[in-house]
């Protein structure tokens, strides 16, 4: 029988843990361990966990390493065949983890699988950060079954099929330890945002597949650490997207896609400026400058990734979802 651990990374999430952890403990079988890895919190989270949730194993990290670095360090200390990475602001439902485990058991090539993510505040709607399985378009823009850009669909069972996808959401993702170790875990220099897409891309390049299992349902609050419109999040998303594209695109697409994507970024920065959002404009500029500054390091990573690549990923949409969205095509079924 496979050993499974649910691993929640926490940073000053005292309120989220008290709100959402009871559902995890209620809905998760006793045989599945629950670990909270604390990323150097200063809000008393660890002390509260020990006092109020004795079933939970608490793993203390010495400082905040971000999502990527925090999970890398935590998982290196946790013995399990499968990890279920779970955000601290996720409410689970009865039977949520069994379908994810069964999917990994059934297919040794399956690297990671996510559940259906619904919005905690609008429970009949898909949630932004993963919805019902992630994809990317020709220019690296992520989208999902159930979410295109900022439009989320009502869940009416239209995507209730298990299927391969391009990326599994870091809000809730069951992954195989063997895969995580083989590809070197998350890229810690991402710190947070898009590191799970990068991980899933690298896993596919070495022959694994990614999937979504809608028989498992969880409810995600979202925006628990950084609001969607925060300057820090804008910077990380623009920077990390360019880093991801540079590392993982095949040579035949790299020199066309990255410059064009940067031009699109420049256009969006001008829109921010026209809206009076000078902070957002500066973050796009900063992201591009950091891309140039890190080209040598990125090239070293790219050589290693491309040298080990042996398969083509599934789930890259060959067109622009931004263009299609502007044409009025705002649901997943209109894209694929």
TrEMBL record:
Cross-referenced Gene3D superfamilies: Spore Coat Polysaccharide Biosynthesis Protein SpsA, Chain A
Domain Glycosyltransferase 2-like, chain residue ranges per copy: 6-180
Domain of life according to the entry: Bacteria
Keywords, sorted A to Z: Glycosyltransferase, Transferase
Molecular function terms from GO: transferase activity
InterPro entries: Glyco_trans_2-like (IPR001173), Nucleotide-diphossugar_trans (IPR029044)
Entries under Pfam families matching the protein: Glycos_transf_2
Family: Belongs to the glycosyltransferase 2 family.
Name of this protein: Glycosyl transferase family 2
Native species: Alistipes inops
Lineage: Bacteria, Pseudomonadati, Bacteroidota, Bacteroidia, Bacteroidales
């Amino acid at each position: 029988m496979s050993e499974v651990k649910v691993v929640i990374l926490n940073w000053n999430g005292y309120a989220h843990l008290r709100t959402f952890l009871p559902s995890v403990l209620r809905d998760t079988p006793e045989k599945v361990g629950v670990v909270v890895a604390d990323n150097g919190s200063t809000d008393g989270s660890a002390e509260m966990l020990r006092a109020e949730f004795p079933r939970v194993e608490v793993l203390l990290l010495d400082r905040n390493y971000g999502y990527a670095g925090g999970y890398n360090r935590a998982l290196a200390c946790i013995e399990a065949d499968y990890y279920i990475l779970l955000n601290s602001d996720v409410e689970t439902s009865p039977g949520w983890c069994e379908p994810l485990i069964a999917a990994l058991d059934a297919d040794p090539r399956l690297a990671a699988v996510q559940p259906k993510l619904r919005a905690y505040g609008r429970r009949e709607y898909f949630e932004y950060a993963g919805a019902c399985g992630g994809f990317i378009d020709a220019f690296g823009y992520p989208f999902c079954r159930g979410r295109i850009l900022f439009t989320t669909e009502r869940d009416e069972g239209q995507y209730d099929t298990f299927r391969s996808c391009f990326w599994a959401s870091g809000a809730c993702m069951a992954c195989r330890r063997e895969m995580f170790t083989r590809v070197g875990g998350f890229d810690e220099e991402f710190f947070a945002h898009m590191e799970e897409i990068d991980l899933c891309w690298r896993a596919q390049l070495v022959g694994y597949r990614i999937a979504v299992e809608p028989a498992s349902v969880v409810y995600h609050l979202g925006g628990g650490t950084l609001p969607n419109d925060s300057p820090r999040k804008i910077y990380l998303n623009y920077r990390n997207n360019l880093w991801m594209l540079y590392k993982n695109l095949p040579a035949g697409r790299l020199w066309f896609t990255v410059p064009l994507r940067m031009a699109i970024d420049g256009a969006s920065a001008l829109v921010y400026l026209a809206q009076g959002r000078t902070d957002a404009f500066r973050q796009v500029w900063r992201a591009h400058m950091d891309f140039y500054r890190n080209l040598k390091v990125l090239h070293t990573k790219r050589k290693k990734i491309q040298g080990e690549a042996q398969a083509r990923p599934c789930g890259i949409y060959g067109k622009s979802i931004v263009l299609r969205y502007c044409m009025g095509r705002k649901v997943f079924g209109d894209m694929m």
